[in-house]
């Protein structure tokens, strides 16, 4: 599990430790990471060109100290001071003493930026507020040939939320200290991070409000049928999905549920004949169900389907048309439910559920805030789909999915996810576990289907790759499994 802590938590944990060893450990880890990158890129540190972008805080201080260490190993180091009067005095002195060149001239800085083998972004760290000023913002788009290493987090990314209020640097590698920060794992910020490397500095932060499941966490969560399993032990999913207009949604949701390990799928919807032709294992009879999935492509049947599902005493996943109906009814529609409800909106549906006071773009730009608000308002677990899928609980706890791929933004992909998450709910997982587990497997299946370096995939390809994703996770132990994920 990757745990992400807020700025307030990090500051409190840092305050419990002596400042000097903290800086020493951070700088040692940062310099070592840079040395490894330079050695991989150029064969050695000696003779490589390094540029430090230094702001006024400790992030700039750490970058300057690391620059000094690498200058000591023979790198040609220059530093641009973005707030010249306020650069970390001891770190600046150390860089100068090690032979580093210091400039405040933007033209010189930009020329060095374009040529350097490695650039250290020490403009701001967790103390960054609002967008970058113009002197720093130019580096967000300036051309460069070398690697950009962000110190703690890419400057311009909000540490607590992952929001990017203005220009932000785009890193190849982010070296973060002590713990992860929400902004490193939630988009749009996460899209600026590149490869993420954690340097332990001895922090002991409290419980994390945001976490990201990794391969080993998934392996522990996924249900495995025991020898005496029957379909009810594995879980029967009831699907209220598809319509004459959208038969495909039913087929894809069924595919997701079956490949999600459902013991059986009971289908209720109009295109029943097509469903059985494609998936002969589906049951059309009424009977016991351990979780309902309502909404994918369910069209005019939605209001009744939603009534039936919400009246049941089993977990209900509401998706697509079900969410539009729920938006019309408002949070009161879930008030009487004793069993859990899982909502799986994309940004547009989330905006509607929030009463139309925000746009889909605003939801996508501030994913944590809106997913939490939605979960609190409806008293339900919310899986907000998108480039980094976010699962929020009504109490504000969040799990972020690390496996997404942009190839998943394809028609019907959400139907597969709904069926898959429904199967995990029917197997007995809580929404808090089922939702991130489904997002993880779905993203991994998308990656496996797209291949490396990646090609377009259909939702059917994603469903077909679910067994491979499942195996990849179950093989566990191996860091990242075949898909190369994990720490
Ligand atoms: N404490 C330590 O020993 C170390 C701290 N480091 C990092 O330093 C950071 C904490 O240091 P600070 O509290 O000094 O915070 P920052 O390094 O984030 O700097 C904050 C300062 O930058 C300026 N600033 C804020 N927003 C800005 C913006 N949008 N554009 C330009 N300037 C802006 C302000 O003057 C503010 O005081 C953390 O990210 C931490 O990981 C590491 O780099 C090295 C070790
Ligand atoms: K930074």
UniProtKB/TrEMBL annotation:
Swiss-Prot/TrEMBL catalytic activity: (6R)-NADHX = (6S)-NADHX; (6S)-NADPHX + ADP = AMP + phosphate + NADPH + H(+); (6S)-NADHX + ADP = AMP + phosphate + NADH + H(+); (6R)-NADPHX = (6S)-NADPHX
Cofactor(s) the protein requires to work: K(+); Mg(2+)
Pfam families assigned to the protein according to its UniProt record, in alphabetical order: Carb_kinase, YjeF_N
Taxonomic superkingdom: Bacteria
Residues bound to AMP: 385-389, 414
Binding residues for (6S)-NADPHX: 249, 297, 346, 415
Coiled-coil stretches: none
All copies of domain YjeF N-terminal, residue ranges: 4-209
InterPro entries the UniProt entry points to: CARKD, Nnr, Ribokinase-like, YjeF_N_dom, YjeF_N_dom_sf
Family membership: In the C-terminal section; belongs to the NnrD/CARKD family. In the N-terminal section; belongs to the NnrE/AIBP family.
Subunit field text: Homotetramer.
Role: Catalyzes the dehydration of the S-form of NAD(P)HX at the expense of ADP, which is converted to AMP. Together with NAD(P)HX epimerase, which catalyzes the epimerization of the S- and R-forms, the enzyme allows the repair of both epimers of NAD(P)HX, a damaged form of NAD(P)H that is a result of enzymatic or heat-dependent hydration.
Name under which the protein is recorded: ADP-dependent (S)-NAD(P)H-hydrate dehydratase
Organism whose genome encodes this protein: Kitasatospora nipponensis
């Amino acid at each position: 599990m990757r745990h992400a802590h807020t700025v307030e938590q990090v500051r409190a944990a840092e305050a419990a430790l002596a400042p000097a060893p903290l800086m020493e450990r951070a700088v040692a880890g940062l310099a070592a990471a840079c040395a490894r990158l330079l050695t991989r890129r150029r064969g050695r540190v000696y003779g490589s060109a390094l540029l430090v972008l230094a702001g006024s805080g400790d992030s700039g201080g750490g970058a300057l100290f690391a620059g000094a260490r690498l200058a000591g190993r023979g790198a040609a180091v220059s530093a641009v001071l973005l707030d010249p009067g306020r650069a970390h005095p001891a770190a600046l002195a150390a860089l100068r003493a090690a032979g580093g060149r210091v400039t405040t001239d933007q033209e010189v800085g930009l020329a060095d930026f374009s040529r350097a083998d490695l650039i250290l972004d020490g403009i701001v760290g967790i103390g960054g507020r609002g967008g970058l000023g113009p002197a720093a913002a130019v580096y967000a788009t300036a051309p460069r040939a070398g690697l950009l290493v962000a110190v703690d987090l890419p400057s311009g990314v909000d540490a607590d939320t992952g929001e990017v209020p203005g220009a932000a640097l785009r890193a190849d590698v982010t070296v973060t200290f002590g713990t992860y920060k929400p902004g490193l794992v939630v988009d749009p910020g996460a899209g600026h991070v590149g490869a993420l490397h954690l340097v332990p500095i001895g922090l002991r932060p409290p419980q994390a409000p945001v976490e990201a499941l990794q391969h080993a966490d998934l392996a522990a969560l996924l249900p495995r049928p025991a020898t005496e399993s029957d379909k009810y032990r594995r879980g029967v999913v009831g699907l209220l999905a598809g319509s004459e207009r959208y038969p495909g949604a039913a087929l894809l949701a069924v595919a997701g549920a079956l490949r999600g390990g459902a013991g059986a799928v009971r289908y209720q919807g109009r295109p029943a004949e097509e469903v059985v032709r494609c998936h002969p294992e589906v049951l059309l009879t009424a009977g016991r169900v351990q979780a309902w999935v309502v909404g994918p492509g369910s069209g005019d049947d939605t209001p009744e389907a939603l009534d039936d599902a919400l009246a049941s005493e089993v977990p209900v996943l509401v998706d697509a048309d079900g969410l539009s109906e729920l938006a019309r009814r408002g949070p009161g529609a879930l008030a009487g439910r004793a069993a859990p409800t899982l909502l799986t909106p994309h940004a547009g549906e989330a905006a509607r559920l929030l009463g139309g006071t925000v746009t889909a773009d605003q939801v996508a730009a501030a994913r944590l805030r809106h997913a939490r608000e939605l979960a609190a308002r409806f008293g339900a677990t919310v899986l907000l789909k998108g480039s980094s899928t976010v699962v929020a609980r009504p109490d504000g706890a969040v799990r972020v999915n690390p496996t997404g791929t942009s190839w998943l933004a394809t028609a019907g992909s959400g139907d597969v996810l709904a069926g898959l998450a429904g199967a995990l709910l029917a197997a007995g997982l809580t929404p808090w576990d089922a939702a991130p587990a489904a997002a993880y497997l779905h993203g991994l299946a998308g990656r496996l289907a797209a291949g490396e370096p990646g090609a377009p995939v259909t939702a059917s390809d994603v469903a077909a790759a679910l067994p491979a994703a499942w195996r990849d996770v179950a093989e566990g132990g191996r860091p990242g499994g075949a898909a190369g994920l994990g720490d």
